[in-house]
Amino acid sequence: MSMYAAGADSAMPNGTADGQPHGPQANQACMTCRKQKRKCNKALPACGLCERMNRHCDYSDSTPPPTSEDFNALRMKLMELESRLNGGGGVGGGIMNSPLLFLPLHRALCRAPKHLVLSCLRTVPNNKKLRPNGMAYRIAFPRLFFLTRNHSHMEDMEANQVSINIPKPSIEIPVDVLDLLGDGQNVQAIISEYFATVHRWMPIVSQMRMTRNMVNPIWEAGPDLALLFLCMKLIISRPHDGIESSQNPIYLAAKRFISLLEMSGAATLLILQANLLVMWYEYGQAIYPAAWMTAGWCVRYGNLLGINGQSEAVQLLGRPSTWTEREERHRTWWGVQIADRVVSHISQGYIMNSQEPDAETVLPVDDVAWDEGEMSAATQTLLSAPIDSPVASFPRLCQASSMMGKVLHHHLGEKIPTETARFDLASQLYLDVSALARQITEEIATVPDYITLTAPLSLTFSALATLCEPYSCPTGYGSKTASAEVAAMQIQAVDGLKTVSRSILDFSEQINAVTTELQDLDRISPIVMAPLYAAAANFAWLVRESGDENSQMALDALRRTLSRLGTRWRNAAEYARILEAQEFQYAVGSAGS
């Protein structure tokens, strides 16, 4: 039974306990049940399943359109006939191209399951010579990609009539997904809210492409696009009191849908973008270890698609046909790297890899230019460009992510022979990250919308705190009897923590000032929460060490901000609870001493 199938209709609205209707009964199953090959109790005027799903029940005699199974059976018969006509003896295996959806959006998403309308069959080109037996070999994409080590052979295989089929998603959009999305008007509302909120701090989906497609009456769509819409709805949803975010029906439907697409062997950019949104939901709502695992999934899936910027990567998506498409892939890979940085440095589970951006890596172009498709206004900037070079908020976030990567590499990956060399590198890294923090702070004072730069500034603050924290405890890097050099480094690290904590406190007050309305919180990135907690933890430590009254006031202010932001992102509320638990533990310990 499908994991999406409804439970047995043992207590249907129009039937008895065994699903049989009380009153008059139709002569045949309704149109929807026939299409979905579900059991129909034939109740009049509507069967139990249609009534429960609140949809129109049609008992007309018209033949339902063919399903994906019908198309697959037809494909196999055609291939067998082709083999016989050409004198071949076998049928090539492999994954065939999936059905494509060519329907207006409101029909595609509202009147399930009418999305199986057209099936495309990939055949051997006429100008290619067939093998002696008259058949070209067909090799399924996932097996070929993962079972051969040298992917350069893929082009050779194609040249030698070995057809490599990169599958499009070939599954039906689950009924519960269609119900959650609603009609075309509801989907349009989801898209509008997404681009007005989440897109401002994580602009990885092309707004221009989406807008163009939405007004196009003939639009190629499919289950991967439906998944993206569902995940847009998920990321803009607010938590509800008394309901765990991990039990959100939208979240559960999205995770099931992703699993089905993954098992089908589908490889599309939309699926990666959708799962990135799932990761941010999991991170923002403190769903662990799912957030950490999803971030790693996105890294590997980006590698699979070949958008990771590595010259040897296989380009499964093919060459981008437009500048917008190329930039969208580039931004999505940056989004993958940022997600991995953010979720990993918090959990102390960052796994070093060889895909760190280098000095020649290109930053995303200006956000407004990309949204509007203005290629002439989109100048490229390298990661090695001076910090004071003017860039938009998302490129700033990419720079902050790169700085965080350097910090993590310094702590986890660098092999430095002497403490002096390590401390020198740490000091230089502190200066570089601080310079970026100052630059963003200056830009915030000049931009009309303060919120747009809160995410990059937050990640920069997190990088500073992450850099200083291990050095504030000298036994972590030196002997138990600290040398004079280690002690000096400890003093610098503690001063650095105090400085960044005061900056984060000011940052917190500015966030409160620009989010006076409840809907303003929807534009705040969950990246903001980690530095707020880091500063609060530092002030709590100062209170325990010295009983400083100003530190206590700062701690209380940060806790209030976290509690307030917790109405939008539950990781903020969890941080506030952790602080309360630590304070309680300290109070109990002090009373017992």
Automatic annotation (TrEMBL):
It is found in: Nucleus. The keyword Transcription regulation applies. It holds the Pfam family Fungal_trans. Its main location: nucleus. GO terms for biological process: DNA-templated transcription. Residues 29-59 form the Zn(2)-C6 fungal-type domain. GO terms for molecular function: DNA binding; DNA-binding transcription factor activity, RNA polymerase II-specific; zinc ion binding. Residues 1-25 are annotated as: Disordered. PROSITE patterns: ZN2_CY6_FUNGAL_1 (PS00463), ZN2_CY6_FUNGAL_2 (PS50048). The keyword Transcription regulation applies. Gene3D superfamilies: Zn(2)-C6 fungal-type DNA-binding domain. Keywords: Metal-binding, Nucleus, Transcription, Transcription regulation. GO terms for cellular component: nucleus. This is Zn(2)-C6 fungal-type domain-containing protein. The lineage of its organism: Eukaryota, Fungi, Dikarya, Ascomycota, Pezizomycotina.
